[in-house]
Amino acid sequence: MTETASNPTEAGARAGKGLKIERIFSTEGVHPYDAITWERRDVVQTNWKTGETVFEQLGVEFPDFWSLNASTIVTTKYFRGAVGTPERETGLRQLIDRVVSRYVAAGIEHDYFATTADAEIFEHELTWLLANQYFSFNSPVWFNVGTKSPQQVSACFILSVDDSMDSILNWYKEEGFIFKGGSGAGLNLSRIRSSKELLSSGGTASGPVSFMRGADASAGTIKSGGATRRAAKMVVLDVDHPDIEEFVETKWREEDKIRALRDAGFDMDLGGKDITSVQYQNANNSVRVNDEFMKAVENGTEFGLRSRKDGSVIETVDARSLFRKISEAAWACADPGLQYDDTINDWHTNPETGRITASNPCSEYMSLDNSSCNLASLNLLKFLRDDDTFDAPLFAKAVEFIITAMDISICFADFPTEPIGQTTRDYRQLGIGYANLGALLMAMGLGYDSDGGRAMAATITSLMTGTSYRRSAELAAIVGPYAGYARNAEAHQRVMRKHQAANDDVRPLHIADAEVHKLATEEWAKVVDLGKTNGFRNAQASVLAPTGTIGFMMDCDTTGIEPDFSLVKFKKLVGGGSLQIVNQTIPRALKKLGYDEEKIEAIVAYIGEHGHVVDAPGLKPEHYEVFDTAMGERALKPMGHVKMMAACQPFLSGAISKTVNLPESATVEEIEQIYMESWKLGLKATAIYRDNCKVGQPLADGGGKAKKDAAAADAAAEAETKVVEKVVEKVVYAPTRKRLPKSRLARTTSFTVAGAEGYMTSGAHDDNTLGEIFLKLGKQGSTLAGVMDAFSIAVSIGLQYGVPLETYVSKFTNLRFEPAGLTDDPDVRMAQSIMDYVFRRLALDYLSFDERAALGIYSAEERQRHLETGSYEPVEETGSASELVETAPVAKAAPVVEDVVEAEVDEDPLAGAPEVKVAKTTAELLEQITGHAVDSPLCMTCGTKMRPAGSCYVCEGCGSTSGCS
């Protein structure tokens, strides 16, 4: 543990007081890096849609236990410096040292440590925790800290707008700068007078909804300029605002417009060329409801809408009708969500400074206007002991180090605006949280939607926040409480007592959560006592964020507070390709539940084939709940999500980023129930998403009407196929072979792929179409040479019998096996295999530009032209990429294509059928197993299908997120 030292006497001590650091994780005399086995990896990232290499950095250094996916995402997202220059970071050590050294230097500068020796121990402990994937800071820390860029450490921002044109235009400006940096922001528009009120000039006001149009257009324009992700924003309006119904209907009406335009043939998918014609699509909308309104809904009474100028009631509405309209809009387009104002402000530590009126885009950060929050998340699965119990003391020690580092960051952080900077420095809001809760509960044999699972999650969350505030009180004794504490001391202490009381209400159900709860109870007692004496260093301590990209960095199976997404997933393999695996926590959970190795193997094999546990051999039905997931055959019930959030909410300073997912068949009444129960259970915010309720997103098989249209098309195609089958059963044809002339044009290409040398000779017809290939690899007489001869003969015969070269190219490009890597061909710099190189080269030599463009294959010259002009296409189309040249006769070692006996071949009735889509992510794999679409957008960076992470989406291919954290 750590303690306060007032009069240090050790060597290197400075005058004054500071933290005395005890070494917990690292080993004295051994640097954390020296205890790790490091290896070099090649990070190559391709766009799975086009096959193009979008990123390449060779020889990066990572611990051997880091997955390929984690090292790929860290290399592409967080390494600084231009690729290929000496300034480029080349390994995890450089990245961690860049960040940690800045934190330690700031801690020393601002007197956080008792001695320089304590500072060194702190550096080692923080380095150890990061390198071993026990926690991660939020993305802006990795982007900016220790670089020449502004030291922005916050991902979450809350802005403020008043009822004046200057303020409104300033809102546009501030949002634009935040979006430009790749972050997101939220704000409440309720101060802007309604369209039912008069201006001082006598005219009628425009109302906040009209100004939302300008901000939405700005976000849509700037979103692609963010360095890391698309723009994310939250717009909030109070339920008593006179324009509330117009606000509720904004995205609902636009969704109807999207459907009409889609049915008329316009491209209305997310990112489609016509989607920009609709409005309000770049923001999440939330209605801020109060207890008065919710009680009026319960009682069926009227509710008053109030003037923004003097607070007088200018219109009354039926509360139930308005609540119904909100739920209908959410049913139709997933917006608006609800934020519960009185609950939020009842847990507010700074009410004397101002109310909490808004949140960040993902709704986990709720604090004062013009403020920001930096986040960090712990990997809960790292604290699971070998006996499958949670190591609460070790978890608490990790929280101490992390919350200390997070507070230090505010000392050197930069902010997008001065008001945000001033508020953050005065109130020092932090957002510690966690990831991998779903995986932890499963490994412990606890169902996510069970009393045991909720008790475990509640006690862990309570321990995390209690330890954070205890350390905050200790820091206040050393470096002082936050500047706004004095005026809010009574309120802050009241909220600490509320947390303590909530902790006392938790009833542990097992030995495991009882241990955690006992330690949490001790921590909250210290918080209350120390807070009375010292005050607190931080106005806020904890939130539960989506942990999208950093979740991948820590190799987490689940994000934030989320359950497991599915029981099967994809694992990237070194050297290319991926492997479908059953989540590794499942065998551990089965062992915890008492199953022997033989039964575990059978159950895991069943899950791998079916994607769920229903009817798995030997698995007891009472254990099914342990393996319930967010999607699939045993998807969690909506209220299971709500109850888990309710269990954890009393122990968080902020809120929870999470969406309650509903099936397409869900009713408006069910949404009303979720919103009402969320209020009764004490949640601060709730968002819902009904499957396929939105059109404007690129799905694998469409949604809503698109699904029905696709089903009708499939049925028609099936019927047509049956008719064709009946006809072609009796049709026999003799394919015609187009032989090459005795003397033909040919070219021989020498190549190297990852150091493996080979030769390819290609022969062409008189019209320059490819007719044969000969591949030479390995010594003559070797097995490899024989296989290549046979392969060459097979391809050559296919070409002469009319199989298009495009078919071969589409089949063999992106085929991954060793050797794979760099080539000596400037047009094909990277190859996934020998076959990948050969057929890319053939495409460049024999296909026209349009044919190659359709396959995503371009020459070096064409790629350069695209960088300079934005277009691959040459000024004049000349056919193939290069002219054939006559070469010497083929070497004697080259095989000879023998004549083949022509036989009658029945026409394949399935010829021309659509190719089965190969899954590239866990979301696509789940779709194939279940036969149901996963309602997620495609990644704007690499084109793969994303999966939900909190209120946002995260890409398993490149780590991009759709949110702000």
Automatic annotation (TrEMBL):
<dbReference type="InterPro" id="IPR050862">
    <property type="entry name" value="RdRp_reductase_class-2"/>
</dbReference>
<feature type="domain" description="Ribonucleotide reductase large subunit C-terminal">
    <location>
        <begin position="154"/>
        <end position="689"/>
    </location>
</feature>
<comment type="function">
    <text>Catalyzes the reduction of ribonucleotides to deoxyribonucleotides. May function to provide a pool of deoxyribonucleotide precursors for DNA repair during oxygen limitation and/or for immediate growth after restoration of oxygen.</text>
</comment>
<keyword id="KW-0547">Nucleotide-binding</keyword>
<keyword id="KW-0846">Cobalamin</keyword>
<keyword id="KW-1015">Disulfide bond</keyword>
<dbReference type="InterPro" id="IPR000788">
    <property type="entry name" value="RNR_lg_C"/>
</dbReference>
<dbReference type="Pfam" id="PF12637">
    <property type="entry name" value="TSCPD"/>
</dbReference>
<keyword id="KW-0560">Oxidoreductase</keyword>
<feature type="domain" description="Ribonucleotide reductase class II vitamin B12-dependent N-terminal">
    <location>
        <begin position="42"/>
        <end position="133"/>
    </location>
</feature>
<keyword id="KW-0170">Cobalt</keyword>
<keyword id="KW-0237">DNA synthesis</keyword>
<dbReference type="InterPro" id="IPR013344">
    <property type="entry name" value="RNR_NrdJ/NrdZ"/>
</dbReference>
<feature type="domain" description="TSCPD">
    <location>
        <begin position="741"/>
        <end position="845"/>
    </location>
</feature>
<dbReference type="InterPro" id="IPR013678">
    <property type="entry name" value="RNR_2_N"/>
</dbReference>
<dbReference type="Pfam" id="PF02867">
    <property type="entry name" value="Ribonuc_red_lgC"/>
</dbReference>
<dbReference type="InterPro" id="IPR024434">
    <property type="entry name" value="TSCPD_dom"/>
</dbReference>
<dbReference type="Pfam" id="PF08471">
    <property type="entry name" value="Ribonuc_red_2_N"/>
</dbReference>
<protein>
    <recommendedName>
        <fullName>Vitamin B12-dependent ribonucleotide reductase</fullName>
        <ecNumber>1.17.4.1</ecNumber>
    </recommendedName>
</protein>
<comment type="similarity">
    <text>Belongs to the ribonucleoside diphosphate reductase class-2 family.</text>
</comment>
